[in-house]
Amino acid sequence: MSNTDPTAPAARALQAVGDLQPRYATVATAIATDILDGRRPVGQMLPPEGELCVTYGVSRSTVREALRRLRELGLVEAIRGVGTRIIADQPRSNYVLAAQSIADVMGYAGPTSLEITGRDDVVANAALAHRLGCEEGSGWCHVVGVRRSDKAAISCVDLYIAAEFAAIADDPALVTIAAYRLVAQQLGIVVAEIKQEIGAIALSEAQAAVLGSAPGSPGLHIRRRFYAAGGRLVEATLNVHAAADRFAYALRLGGEAE
């Protein structure tokens, strides 16, 4: 089938998620996925801009922005008068957080584990209620830990599980399975909505020590809140990552919630 056919697989895939993210991000994600999966090997030249426009059904400006994002990730380089060459099959960042569906928004690009360093039961005061987006006076099981991949620290984690589900914190499976998934598996209470906010921070001395960075260096703060039907808050997680060269967040939406 010709690349000019609008029903080509790439065009269909892009159409499915076109309304969920900017077009350039969709194109960049598609090309990056091909590179990371080995379908476009290191050393190979990407097709000319015009051909990419046809393949993905987008404008030349959209393709150029997508290529710029790929250069920022260190996956490709522009060669004047020649084109764009693939120079790496992994982004510059040490870790990529990738989500393929709404329910998998906290899924990582590879296997990770949660090293739990503390646990206590708390009642939300005004400050914590604001931090979690919960009601003041509500009860929570607070789990503190470090998320790791191949023993390298990815993030500092503050996990809050609604008091009625506190037993989940004692489940050994929490090391590798998200709390909200355990709640769904064991109690049949499925997450219906996820809210996520990402902000820039300066790492504290304690956070920097865990993440192998300098105190005061840039970091990312990610808050995720997991709601069951009716707006019932099941879990809230606060993650702090070292930014820029240590962590990148890639979000790809399109599948139905699990």
Helix proportion of residues, in percent?
25-40%
Oligomeric organization of the protein chains: single chain
Please tell me the CATH architecture of the largest domain by its name.
3-Layer(aba) Sandwich
Strand content: 25-35%
Tally of helical runs: 7
Distance from N terminus to C terminus (CA atoms, Å) equals: 33 Å
Label this structure with key terms:
alpha+beta, 26% helix, 10 strands, 6-stranded antiparallel sheet, Chorismate lyase, 2 domains, 258 residues, Arc Repressor Mutant, subunit A
Commentary on this structure:
With 258 residues, the chain is an alpha+beta fold. The protein has 2 domains: 78 residues, Orthogonal Bundle (Arc Repressor Mutant, subunit A); 145 residues, Chorismate lyase-like (Chorismate lyase), CATH 3.40.1410. Helix content is 26%, strand content 34%. The protein contains 7 helices and 10 strands. It has a 6-stranded antiparallel β-sheet with strand order 4-5-6-9-8-7. The chain has a two-stranded antiparallel ribbon with strand order 1-2. A two-stranded parallel ribbon has the order 3-10. Helix 2 crosses helix 4 and helix 3 crosses helix 4. The longest helix has 14 residues.
